[in-house]
Design brief:
Radius of gyration of chain A: 20 Å
Number of helices of chain A: 14
Number of domains of chain A: 1
Strand order of the largest sheet of chain B: 6-7-8-3-9-10
CATH architecture of chain B: 3-Layer(aba) Sandwich
Number of strands of chain A: 0
Oligomer: heterodimer
Largest sheet of chain A: none
Radius of gyration of chain B: 19 Å
Shape of chain A: globular
Distance between the termini of chain B: 38 Å
Strand content of chain B: 25-35%
Order of helices and strands of chain B: EEEHEEHEHHHEHEHEEHHEE
CATH superfamily of chain B: P-loop containing nucleotide triphosphate hydrolases
Largest sheet of chain B: 6 strands, mixed
CATH class of chain B: Alpha Beta
Shape of chain B: globular
Strand content of chain A: under 5%
C-alpha cells in the first residue's frame, strides 16, 4: 500500500516537472540537472527556468501537499471528527489575514521588501489566531480546552478573520485587492529553493513527531477518558498535536496561500481504503496529499496555459465532487 | 489493596462525593450501589485516578496514586465504561489491541499478539476479528471492550490464574456501569466472567451496578452510597437490608426465597 503510494507520488512528480507553461523533455531535464555539477557548461535559459522555477515548485508542491494531508489527518484524529480541516482551529484564516494585512499595510509602512516578509506575516497571523482560538475555548473552571469548545470557537474565529479579510479587500487599492484574492486562493508560483528548505524542515519534522504519537491518537479514537485509562496524557497529546498542526499548516500556508480541501479529502480517501489506524494514516496521507496537490498544480498550469489558475480553485473544483461522490458511494459512519 | 481515605471531590460548589473512606481487598468482587446521583461513577473515577480528589487520597498498595504517571498506571489499572463509541472505522482486533498499548512502544510484540488472541477467544469475539467495530451491536461491542480491558491487565501466564506470592503488584479493574445496554443473558454472562477474573489473588475489582439482584448474586462485598456519602459496606446480606434499601432508594423491598441460594429482591 505505502509502496504503491510512493511509486504514484514519484510518477506524478515526474509529470509535474515535465509539463507546464513550457514542456521539458527527459533529455532537457537530465541536461539541466547535469549542469549543476562542476565542470559542466553553464545552464541555458531553459535549463535555468527548469532549475529555478519548475523544479523547486514541484518539490514545494509535494511538501505543501504532504503538510496539508498530515495536518488533516492529525486534526481529524484529535477532534474525532471526519469533517475537520487542518485550518479549523483558525490557522489558515489567520495566516490569510496576516498576509492580507501585509498586502494592504506593507506598502504604506515600507516594511517587507525582503522575500520572507509575506511568509512571516502569514505565519504570525496563523499562530496568533490559533492561540486566540485556544484562549477563547478554554473553560472557566479548569484550564483544559474541550474538543467541542475548540471546534466551535475555531468556526467562529475563522468567520471573524474571513470578514476581516473581506474588509481589507474592500478598502484596498486595486492591485492589493488582487494580491489578496490571489493569495487567499492559493498559488505555488512563488516557490523558491529557500522556501523549499524551510517548508521541508517543518513538514518532515512535523510528520516525524506526529508519527511518534500515532498510537496515542489511535487510543483517542475510543474517547478521551478511555485514552486516559490506556495511559495517554490527553492534555499533553492535544498540545503536541495542535502545535505540530499549527507549525506545518502555518508554514505551508505562509508560502502558498490558502489551499482548501486537500487536508479534508486525503484522510477520507485513505480511511476508506485502509482503515483508520493512524500509524498507517499519517505516512499515507503525506504521500497522498503530495500526490493530489501535485496533480492539482499540474491541472492549474495546464488548463489555461501559458497562464495559470490559483491552485485553491482547482483543489475545490475537483475536490468537492470527489468528496461528495466518496461520501455517497460508501456507507460512512460519522 | 486499594484504599480511599477521606476522599472528597467537588465540581464548583457541588460536592459529588464527600469524605469517603473505604478499602477494597484483592481477590474479591466489590460492587458499589446507590440511587442516581449518589456519586457511584464519581467514586469509580476517583479510585481509577481519572479524577483527582480535592481532599483525601487514594492509595494502591499503600502508595498514593495522585503523582503516578499515566503511562505507568495504565500497565496495571484498567477501566471498563459503558457504550464505547469508536470515532472511525477500526477493526475489532485493533480495538482489543489497544489494551496492549501501555505495554509496547512502537509495534506489538509476539506476546501482545498472543494475549489478544487469548482474550478474544475468551470473550467469543474471535469471529469478529477483522470486522469494523462500528458495525457491531451494543452487546457485541461491550464484549469487545471487555476483551480490550482484560487484555490490558492480562499476564502472559494466564489472566485468571491466581498467584500465591505477593511479590507481583496488584492489578486494578474498575467497571463503570458496564451492564447498561446489555440484555439479561449477556448481563449474567458478563458478571460470571467478571466474577472469574476477580477471583485472582492479585486483582482488585470494583464495579458499579444498578441491578440490586445482580449485586446480591455476584458481589463479595457491597458498598452503598447515597448523596455522595458512604452509607454502608459489607456482605450482600448486611448491606441489602430492608431499612437501608428503603432509606437510600425510597422503595419498599420484599425478600423472596427461590430454589437458588442467596438474596432475591422484589420491590413494591
Amino acid at each position: 500500500m505505502l509502496i504503491a503510494l510512493t511509486v504514484l507520488t514519484l510518477l506524478v512528480l515526474a509529470a509535474s516537472i515535465r509539463y507546464g507553461a513550457i514542456d521539458f523533455s527527459v533529455a532537457q531535464i537530465s541536461r539541466a540537472l547535469a549542469s549543476l555539477f562542476p565542470g559542466q557548461p553553464e545552464p541555458t535559459l531553459d535549463q535555468r527556468i527548469f532549475l529555478e522555477l519548475r523544479f523547486p515548485r514541484a518539490i514545494m508542491c509535494l511538501l505543501v501537499g504532504a503538510s496539508l494531508g498530515v495536518g488533516g489527518t492529525l486534526m481529524q484524529a484529535l477532534f474525532r471528527n471526519p469533517i475537520v480541516e487542518p485550518g479549523l482551529v483558525g490557522t489558515s484564516s489567520g495566516a490569510a489575514f496576516g498576509s492580507a494585512l501585509f498586502f494592504v499595510l506593507g506598502g504604506v509602512l515600507h516594511i517587507g521588501t525582503s522575500l520572507f516578509a509575506l511568509p512571516v506575516a502569514a505565519c504570525i497571523g496563523g499562530v496568533l489566531s490559533t492561540y486566540l482560538v485556544f484562549l477563547l475555548a478554554r473553560a472557566k473552571e479548569d484550564s483544559r480546552a474541550s474538543i467541542v469548545m475548540l471546534l466551535l470557537t475555531g468556526l467562529a474565529v475563522n468567520a471573524l478573520f474571513m470578514s476581516a479579510i473581506g474588509f481589507l479587500q474592500y478598502i484596498a487599492r486595486d492591485p492589493q485587492a488582487r494580491s489578496i484574492t490571489f493569495w487567499s486562493l492559493g498559488t505555488l508560483s512563488g516557490a523558491s529553493w529557500k522556501a523549499v528548505e524551510i517548508v521541508s524542515i517543518s513538514t518532515i519534522a512535523g510528520a516525524l513527531v506526529a508519527l511518534r504519537y500515532a498510537k496515542q491518537l489511535n487510543a483517542l479514537m475510543i474517547g478521551e477518558e478511555e485514552a486516559t485509562y490506556l495511559g495517554v496524557n490527553v492534555n499533553r497529546l492535544k498540545w503536541i498535536i495542535l502545535s505540530v498542526n499549527v507549525v506545518i499548516v502555518a508554514v505551508a500556508t505562509a508560502f502558498t496561500g490558502v489551499i482548501s480541501f486537500v487536508g479534508l479529502i486525503v484522510p477520507h480517501i485513505l480511511r476508506m481504503i485502509g482503515g483508520a489506524d493512524n500509524r498507517y494514516l499519517i505516512v499515507a496521507s503525506a504521500l497522498t496529499g503530495a500526490t493530489l496537490l501535485t496533480l492539482a498544480d499540474l491541472l492549474a498550469r495546464m488548463v489555461v496555459r501559458p497562464a495559470e489558475l490559483p491552485i485553491g480553485i482547482v483543489t475545490s473544483a475537483v475536490g468537492v465532487p470527489v468528496f461528495i461522490f466518496l461520501l455517497r458511494r460508501r456507507r460512512y459512519v460519522f | 489493596m486499594l484504599q480511599a481515605n477521606n476522599v472528597t471531590f467537588s465540581i464548583g460548589h457541588k460536592r459529588l462525593i464527600e469524605d469517603i473512606t473505604v478499602s477494597f481487598a484483592p481477590g474479591k468482587l466489590h460492587l458499589i450501589i446507590g440511587p442516581n446521583g449518589a456519586g457511584k461513577s464519581t467514586l469509580i473515577k476517583v479510585l481509577a485516578r481519572l479524577l483527582r480528589p480535592q481532599d483525601g487520597s487514594v492509595q494502591y498498595e499503600g502508595v498514593n496514586v495522585s503523582d503516578a504517571r499515566e503511562a505507568e498506571l495504565a500497565k496495571h489499572r484498567a477501566v471498563l465504561s459503558q457504550a464505547i463509541e469508536v470515532a472511525f472505522p477500526l477493526t475489532v482486533r485493533e480495538v482489543v489491541m489497544m489494551g496492549r498499548y501501555p505495554h509496547f512502544g512502537g509495534r506489538p510484540g509476539p506476546a501482545d499478539e498472543k494475549i489478544v488472541d487469548e482474550v478474544m477467544s475468551h470473550f467469543d469475539v474471535t469471529e469478529f476479528s477483522a470486522r469494523d467495530y462500528q458495525t457491531l451491536s451494543g452487546g457485541e461491542r461491550q464484549r469487545v471492550n471487555f476483551a480490550r480491558v482484560l487484555a490490558q491487565l492480562w499476564r502472559e501466564d494466564g489472566g485468571t490464574r491466581s498467584e500465591n506470592g505477593s511479590s507481583t503488584p496488584c492489578r486494578y479493574l474498575f467497571l463503570d456501569e458496564p451492564l447498561t445496554f446489555l440484555d439479561i443473558r449477556h448481563q449474567i454472562d458478563f458478571m460470571k466472567k467478571v466474577r472469574a477474573f476477580a477471583n485472582a489473588s492479585d486483582v482488585v475489582t470494583v464495579g458499579v451496578v444498578h441491578d440490586l439482584n445482580l449485586a446480591a448474586r455476584f458481589a463479595d462485598q457491597i458498598v452503598l452510597l447515597n448523596h455522595g456519602r458512604f452509607v454502608a459496606g459489607g456482605s450482600p446480606a448486611d448491606v441489602l437490608s430492608a431499612d437501608l434499601i428503603r432509606d437510600a432508594f425510597g422503595v419498599e423491598p420484599s425478600f423472596v426465597s427461590t430454589q437458588h441460594p442467596g438474596l432475591h429482591l422484589i420491590f413494591e
